[in-house]
TrEMBL record:
It comes from the Bacteria. The gene is hemH. This is Ferrochelatase. It catalyses: heme b + 2 H(+) = protoporphyrin IX + Fe(2+); Fe-coproporphyrin III + 2 H(+) = coproporphyrin III + Fe(2+). GO terms for biological process: heme biosynthetic process. Catalyzes the ferrous insertion into protoporphyrin IX. Keywords: Cytoplasm, Heme biosynthesis, Iron, Lyase, Metal-binding, Porphyrin biosynthesis. It holds the Pfam family Ferrochelatase. Its EC number is 4.98.1.1.
Length: 339
């Protein structure tokens, strides 16, 4: 018996629609997070509300439209995150351990997801931020949101947070399987595999974020697993935002340079994203493809993220079980009446 434990998956979040108001609401919440933009709010908020959110929602909304899940009228990030939670739930159904998903920004909120678990009598929550590489801008703020919710609860559940897992064998196994499956399905062989991670301002790394070394750990383990080396499996960083220096090398200039130097066939994997989203489907799948082709490339393939692949669900199950298996020191009664 696991004493009423529940599992909470947390991903970034995404707008409810592609219209200006929906995208603006989402970006406003996201870019007001001081874990994401570490600036004096008296200076940043007028720039954000007056300049950034005056133009960016239209532009982003058009990009979201290109990748939107029309069938369900929702963002792909939500579709895949929900699918991961549902498949993981089936792995824990026999033990009656519920699995829910919450988004750091937007819907379903972390607060609503925690409510679903406590309504089912959960006294313990295993929190699994869906980021293999730690960053304060993602992992820490996901956990912050859990603790903010707990701050308002008279009867708190006990909480364990799953640490980042940049080279956990079950993660590397899932990546290896997805790359081999994707490349095996092509009738051409890429000259090079580019592994593109979401970028981060260099300043954050200097201040102590371990994101870059965790990306390097992932790529080292993946190279070993795929029997590739530094020359045919490159690490790059995408999605720069704002004027500051971000982690390098940048994905797009690297790929354009490769094409200009005569490279013709390229595959891109995005190991930092567990679910396909605007950054993978549009920035890489659409924009980077165009840039590569315009620079002389001939074949381009963006490898789908792990999404709800069986190996990805195996990974989530392994990570969650590690936290569930060890019982807490004290089991508290679920309610006053049970005491
Ligand atoms: C200062 C800005 C940003 C930091 C720092 C940042 C870090 C960061 N983000 C992810 C994962 C995702 N980001 C996504 C979208 C996205 N990211 C930023 C900015 C920063 N990210 C913006 C403005 C956006 C919105 C999209 C746009 O307007 O172009 C997404 C996808 C969301 C979706 O709806 O599909 C993900 C996932 C990581 C892992 C990370 C730090 C390492
Ligand atoms: Fe981002
Ligand atoms: Fe982007």
């Amino acid at each position: 018996m696991h004493h009423n434990v529940g599992i909470l998956l947390i991903n970034l979040g995404t707008p409810d629609g592609t219209d200006y108001r929906s995208v603006r609401r989402y970006l406003s919440e996201f870019l007001s997070d001081q874990r994401v933009i570490e600036a004096n709010q008296l200076i940043w908020q007028p720039i954000l509300q007056g300049v950034v959110l005056a133009v960016r929602p239209q532009k982003s909304g058009r990009n979201y439209q290109r990748i939107w899940n029309m069938e369900r009228n929702e963002s792909p990030l939500l579709t895949y995150t929900r699918a991961q939670a549902e498949k993981l739930a089936s792995r824990f159904a026999a033990e009656q351990i519920p699995v829910v998903h919450g988004m750091r920004y937007g819907n379903p909120s972390v607060e609503a997801a925690i409510g679903q678990l406590t309504d089912q009598g959960c006294e313990r929550i295993v929190v699994l931020p869906l980021y293999p590489q730690y960053s304060a801008t993602t992992t820490a703020t996901a956990n912050d949101q859990v603790f903010r919710t707990l701050m308002r609860m008279r009867r708190q559940p006990a909480v364990r947070t799953v640490p980042s897992f940049p080279d956990h064998p079950s993660y590397i196994r899932a990546l290896d399987a997805s790359v081999r499956r994707a490349l095996g399905g092509l009738d051409w062989k890429p000259d090079i595999l580019v592994a593109s991670f979401h970028g981060l301002p260099k300043k954050y790394v200097k201040l102590g974020d371990t994101y870059d070394v965790e990306c390097e750990r992932t790529i080292r383990a993946l190279r070993t697993s795929l029997r590739l080396d530094e020359d045919n499996c490159l690490l790059t960083y995408q999605s720069r935002f704002g004027p500051a220096k971000w982690l390098e090398p940048y994905t797009a200039p690297t790929v354009v340079k490769l094409a200009k130097n005569g490279l013709r066939k390229l595959a891109v994997v995005m190991p930092g994203f567990l679910a396909d989203c605007i950054e993978t489907l549009d920035e890489i799948g659409n924009e980077l493809r165009e840039e590569f082709m315009e620079a002389g490339g001939e074949k381009f393939f963006a490898i789908p993220c792990l999404n709800a692949d069986d190996e990805a669900v195996d990974m989530l199950e392994t990570l969650a079980r590690a936290e569930i298996m060890t019982e807490p020191a004290t089991i508290r009664p679920a309610s006053r009446s049970a005491a």
